[in-house]
Amino acid sequence: MTDSATEPLRVLLVDDHALVRSAIRQALTAPDIEIVGECATADEVLDRAVALRPDVILLDIDLPGMSGVDVVRELAPRLPRTKIVMLTVSTDRRHLLDAIRHGASGYLTKDLATDALLRAIRGIRHGDLPMPRALAAEVMEHFAHGGGGQDGDVALSSLSSREHEVLRLLEAGMTDREIADALIISTRTVESHVSAVLRKLGVRNRAEAARRYRGGSERGP
Questions:
Q1: How far apart are the first and last CA of the chain?
Q2: Dist. CA 160–CA 74, nearest whole Å
Q3: Which residues of 171-189 are buried (b: 16+ CB within 10 A; e: fewer)?
């Protein structure tokens, strides 16, 4: 976050619709807010966010190439001082909980009035939660009751779709080379995904990861 209260809050807009970005930019036109960039795709924000290091990223759920939740998962560890706030039409409970679980600092819906959006973004500087009370209560209730599932289920749900694919093939007994050939990626990329899987699941080796995957699959949704 910008250290000085006199400096504008630096905001990066991420939405694949130009008209929506224009409307948000207009809503946030104020002396204490600076729009430092706009992105239309997941790949674009993954590149530009690290370079810009904005105070706030306003991020849509539905993006070409990768979901907004996956973007949060990728960016939150790399930008610990940046507040990532979802701004979306979706009120889907899973989107809400996954976004917060993976590091989003807030969740706003696009039916928010213009002045309310401006207040929500300004409030971030003072530590306010950019989220409607009803959604905040839902999040609190969910995590107060253990996250809505066993630890293993939560850990498995933290994996990206690609990491799930790698873990599934790993559990099937395939080698890194075989997984790479099956997914048409490099063995180095496979090794990177496996390392991420082990870290997210909190396990020491591939055998433990495979057992965790089997246990989650047996419990089902």
A1: 38
A2: 9
A3: beebebeebbeeeebeeee
Residues 131 and 171 in one domain: no
Residue with token string 């048409």? 184
Does 108 share its domain with 212? no
- Domain-located, residue 79: yes
Coil, helix or strand at residue 82: coil
C-alpha 81/C-alpha 57 separation (Å) is: 11
User: Residue 127 pLDDT > 70, yes or no?
Assistant: yes
Lookup result for tokens 């696009």? 110
Distance (Å, whole) CA 42 – CA 200: 22
Question: Which helix (H) or strand (E) element contains residue 122?
Answer: helix 114-124
- What mean pLDDT, rounded, does the chain reach? 86
Distance CA 32, CA 24 (A): 15
Domain of 59 in residue numbering reads as 9-144
The model's pLDDT over 10-33, given as tens digits with 9 standing for 90+, comes to 999 999 999 999 999 999 999 999
Residue in the structure block whose two tokens are 């890194």: 176
Instruction: Indicate the burial class of 195 (C-beta count within 10 angstroms; 0-12, 13-18, 19 or more).
Output: exposed
